[in-house]
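Regression test case RT-17, inverse folding.

Input:
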């Protein structure tokens, strides 16, 4: 059964360009409640751990460098059907394929610097949320 939480982070390009507030506004207006939020910066090593599932992909080293290049804003979000609804809100990984009105269509620069992350399953939402937030911070 679907849980009601997902994990997201606003990525370095979008934070650097001053889109944090606009993106959070879209998230809240879409009905998501923010359970946990902070601004932080990953080391290349931690970025590599977060994206370890992609370690054999050709873009892995670039992704580690990009994701540690500046501050990010990770969040745990709550809403019914959170994972699927959030992926609809952010749009396709490649902004060239993202639907009009999605966060990536509006703010992503490229397939790598694509403004925002969204968990792809309930299980990963839980794992990724725990990567950034201790359980005690979520209550
Ligand atoms: P995200 O949804 O956070 O998951 C993996 C990330 O890898 C993706 O967003 C992009 O930031 C990055 N990436 C870079 N190149 C590619 C690619 N060719 N295909 C998929 N993801 C890529």
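Golden output:
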């Amino acid at each position: 059964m679907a849980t009601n939480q997902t994990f997201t982070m606003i990525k370095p390009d979008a934070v650097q360009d001053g889109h944090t507030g606009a993106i959070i506004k879209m998230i809240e207006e879409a009905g998501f409640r923010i359970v946990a939020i902070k601004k932080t910066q990953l080391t290349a090593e931690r970025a590599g751990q977060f994206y370890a599932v992609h370690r054999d992909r050709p873009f892995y080293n670039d992704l580690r460098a990009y994701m540690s290049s500046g501050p990010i804003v990770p969040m745990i979000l709550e809403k019914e059907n959170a994972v699927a609804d959030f992926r609809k809100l952010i749009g396709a990984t490649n902004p060239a394929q993202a639907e009009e009105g999605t966060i990536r269509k509006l703010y992503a620069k490229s397939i790598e610097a694509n403004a925002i992350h969204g968990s792809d399953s309930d299980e990963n939402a839980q794992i990724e949320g725990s990567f950034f937030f201790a359980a005690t911070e979520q209550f």
